[in-house]
Amino acid sequence: VCFLVPHCLDIFFPHQATPPVHTPRVTDFVRHTNAIEWDNRAKSELAVHPHGPEHIHSDICSFLTPWAHTRIAQLKNRGQPMTVDSLHFIWKNPRLSVSRYAQCDKCGHRCCYDPGSIHWAGTPCVDWSPMGKGKGGDGDTALCFAAWCALMLLCLPAMIVHENSHKFDLRVLVRIFFC
């Protein structure tokens, strides 16, 4: 799924109702700023790639703030399941829920997350995939998804390319990013 964030349509296509047919070659201006990857083998590949990211973060949840962690603990203490819907306070309050800074595995510092103009993401698909648990927004990775949504809403990249299972419910993205 590829979508332009509504506030940025005029940046890419000023005074145009539709995007132009010809766009610049991506290789003319691409800079790989950040990656978030929890798999160590994949992180190793990213670290040595000739066009790899400037910063590599291990876990999207490392961007969650103490405010968000307190609210998450309250959910758990009440015995409520952590679903995309029950975690709405994270993506509805991105300034309170996430920080742009988290520990970077590549340089060892707390580095700023910069999504650039185009953000490419593959959020965990195990809950959406027919090969996985099939729980959708009610699955175990709902917290990761909510944290990713909040980080994107905080950073506001102009374009997001979101890759997931073909069973992913696009209405979830529409509700979070466009409503």
Describe the structure.
Helices cover 32% and strands 13% of the residues. The radius of gyration is 17 Å and the shape is globular. The two termini are 17 Å apart. A hairpin with a 6-residue loop joins strand 4 and strand 5. The protein has 179 residues and is of the alpha/beta class. It is built from seven helices and seven strands. The strands form three sheets. A three-stranded mixed beta sheet has the order 1-7-6, with no helix packed on it. A two-stranded parallel sheet has the order 2-3. About 12% of the residues have low confidence. The longest helix has 14 residues.
- Percent of residues in helices comes to 25-40%
Number of strands: 7
Strand content: 5-15%
Query: Residue ranges: pLDDT <50 for 5 or more in a row?
Result: 6-26
Structural class: alpha/beta
Total of DSSP H or I helical runs spanning 4+ residues: 7
Our Rg estimate from Cα atoms comes to 17 Å
Q: What is the 3D form?
A: globular
Order of helices and strands: EHEHEHHHEEEHEH
In spatial order, strands of the major sheet run: 1-7-6
